[in-house]
Amino acid sequence: MWYSNGNIMYDSKPDSLLPLPTAVFHILITLADRDRHGYSIMQDVAARTGSKVQLSAGTLYSSIRRMLEQGLIEELKESPDPSSTDERRRYYRLTRFGKRVAAAEVERLTALLREARATGLVSGM
Fold first, then answer.
1. Domain span including residue 75
2. How confident is the model at residue 64 (pLDDT cuts 50, 70, 90)?
3. How far apart are CA 26 and CA 24, in angstroms?
4. What is the distance in angstroms between the CA of the first residue and the CA of the last residue of the chain?
5. pTM of the predicted model as reported, rounded to 2 decimal places
6. Cα–Cα separations (whole angstroms), residue 19 to 2, 3, 116
7. Domain presence at residue 55
């Protein structure tokens, strides 16, 4: 099945986007629990990874632009934080399709780990 974002046609099968770039996967994980603005996404990724992954502004916003085009995330019209007074902030939300793609990536990574364990490359956890 195909869908259009208004400009480009995309395959709506989650597997068609796999494997995901590392930055994209981290952004999807970060948006899974709540809507966030760009700087909050950068902070959350760093916190979740113990600062092992730190997204630069360039990487973050080029990833966000591509993710918007692919229908993985959407930009909110209004801030979900009523106390926010910074009109420059853009907030993003994970779409249903984005959740399906993230789940497909988790399945792919789980299968890779299972294969690595089966060969004895890594031990079971």
1. 2-118
2. very high
3. 5
4. 38
5. 0.85
6. 19, 20, 17
7. yes
